[in-house]
Design a protein that fits this description.
This protein is an alpha/beta fold and about 350 residues long. The protein folds into 2 domains: about 250 residues, P-loop containing nucleotide triphosphate hydrolases (Rossmann fold, 3-Layer(aba) Sandwich); about 70 residues, no CATH class. Helix content is about 30%, strand content about 20%. It contains 12 helices and 12 strands. About 45% of the residues are buried. Bound molecules: adenosine-5'-diphosphate, iron/sulfur cluster and magnesium ion (MG).
């Protein structure tokens, strides 16, 4: 499979007067052509900072190191104007909150046309045509009418569709969707995720989907990366993770196990390679005791040790590396135990 994006040893440290925030602290992953990869983790684990680092949309006090190879070119070496070319045309992003991402003083149609004209040398009237076509593709009823509306005249779900239209109208190879449905109610969430999935197939894009919601991961991703306190603690094929939870002999990172156990009522075992239908149940991850550490204040040893039921002395002293358990499965843990059903 062709690798489009290869992130190697990514560190994003934000220098603040109070100290250095190690928001992303040595992250490696790949995105292949045409696949949907999920990143999951509780709030504050560094998911958004990972996404923003890829597009170099970071606060000025952020220092980034490592490599972000897009088609084998390191984006960290690109000039600001080269990055503007990449954003939109190569890699584009949908943010969590459409209201703050759209400009309230321009019509949505105008904003989409601007995105087109920035990347393609086409006439205004051709851009209008493309914009209306994309609005239709994104499921907006009467796209010609919506074109002339302002963001405040549309619902949250419609504005999120506008954001999606805007990020896809330039046909990016990779779409990064950072919690694209968190601000929306469950029914609209399901529609937006169906839309992303539909457009991903139709336009053969790769998608990096960031969420703290396991039902979304199970419904539309093929591979999943689990982040904790700025690091990847586990990666696997999505179906491996969800079938593992029912199999006592399987190995999972204790954090992943905690995430899955925090939503006991959903049957994830339907997750399989042919994209299971999106469950309409969507719950927050909130039942692992303790909290994600402040990235300014990371303790020695395994970052999860204060919350881990399996922790032993070594976990408090030495940081584990990722070990491979099969071709696509890596876990950062010393003390993996088989799952107990009792
Ligand atoms: N502009 C910033 N200045 C300082 N710290 C920040 C800034 N943005 C994010 N952080 C911190 O970086 C860490 C990772 O944040 P983020 O990537 O937004 O997490 P997630 O998306 O997983 O919820 C958090 O501890 C957050 O408080
Ligand atoms: S290394 Fe130790 S503390 Fe960390 S997840 Fe594994 S058992 Fe828990
Ligand atoms: Mg975030």
């Amino acid at each position: 499979m062709e690798t489009l994006l290869n992130v190697k040893g990514l560190k994003t440290h934000i220098h603040t007067p109070e100290g250095v925030v190690r928001a992303v602290d040595g992250v490696d992953f790949e995105i292949n052509k045409g696949e949907i990869v999920g990143i999951i983790g509780e709030s504050g684990c560094g998911k958004s900072m990972t996404a923003l680092s890829i597009l170099r949309l970071l606060p000025s006090k952020a220092k980034v190191s490592g490599e972000i190879l897009y088609r084998e070119n390191d984006l960290l070496k690109y000039s600001p104007s080269q990055m503007r070319e990449i954003r939109g045309k190569g890699i584009s992003m949908i943010f969590q909150d459409p209201v703050t991402s759209l400009n309230p003083v321009f019509t949505v149609g105008n904003q989409i046309c601007e995105a087109i004209i920035l990347h393609q040398k086409i006439s205004k009237s051709a851009a209008v045509e493309k914009a209306i076509e994309m609005l239709g593709l994104c499921g907006l009823p009467s796209p010609e009418e919506q074109f002339n509306r302002y963001p405040h005249q549309l619902s949250g779900g419609m504005n999120q569709r506008i954001m999606i239209a805007m990020s896809l109208v330039t046909h990016p190879e990779i779409l990064i969707a950072d919690e694209p449905t968190t601000a929306l109610d469950v029914t609209i969430q399901a529609q937006i995720l169906d839309l992303i999935q539909h457009l991903q197939t139709k336009l053969t894009m790769s998608v990096l989907l960031i969420t703290h919601d396991l039902s979304i991961i199970s419904a539309i991703t093929k591979r999943v990366i689990i982040m904790y306190a700025g690091k990847i603690v586990e990666y696997a094929r999505t179906n491996q993770i969800f079938t593992a939870v029912k199999n006592p002999a399987s190995l999972l990172h204790p954090y992943t196990r905690g995430l899955i156990n925090s939503i006991p009522n959903i049957d994830f075992t339907s997750a399989k390679d042919e994209s299971p239908p999106l469950t309409s149940v969507s719950k927050r991850l909130n039942t692992i005791p303790g909290v994600v550490p402040n990235p300014m204040d990371i303790l020695a040893g395994c970052r999860f040790h204060p919350r881990c039921p399996n922790a032993v002395q070594r976990c408090r002293e030495i940081e584990p590396e990722i070990r491979l358990y099969g071709e696509d499965h890596g876990i950062r843990c010393f003390e993996l135990r088989e799952y107990s059903t009792s």
